Amino acid sequence: MPEVLDSCFGDDYPIENINHCPNDEVVAGLSTKLYYIVEPHVATFTNPPKEGTYEEIATIPAAGLVPVTGKGWKKIDVLVNKNQLQNLTVGTRGIKKLKGQIDVFIPGFRAKLVGFQRAHLNSRLIFGIKDSSGQMWIIGNKINPSYFENLTLASGDTDEADAGLTGQIMANTSIFAYNGDMTVLADSTTPETP
């Protein structure tokens, strides 16, 4: 049995220190801008390399995410302090996998959100959101795009309740950092930069 494991993993286990200075400011939270693109509109998606430093194997190369010519990302305003990004572990010991998840809340109860539900309830999507430090995180890829696990629009039952669209987005792949450019198309199709 040890020979099987040795041939599977070899002596090449990546090992690094993960340091943290207690005086470093650590902030939580996400941006109020959620970016999305329909997976078929992505021409190139280069996954991070499988070998390298911890940071390298978690980061999409700078030119690794390119939309089809004339296509680009769209953005959604999400409510502050109502969104969370997670990289979950799923599966049985020995064959665990990573699964990206983001929970979002889009404020308002309006026809545009009903239209968004109808258009993308089962769409293959790729999402991006910046964290409080400004790092862009990508959820989904061309092989394992993101899907809505849940997408509920509610009016709220009192003046104090939040009316809006609650979405749980999942991808059967890890979340990845991305430091490259994103072309965001306004509704007039004029490109803008996030």
From TrEMBL:
Source organism, top-level taxon: Bacteria
Protein name per its UniProtKB record: Uncharacterized protein
Species: Chryseobacterium terrae
Organism lineage: Bacteria, Pseudomonadati, Bacteroidota, Flavobacteriia, Flavobacteriales
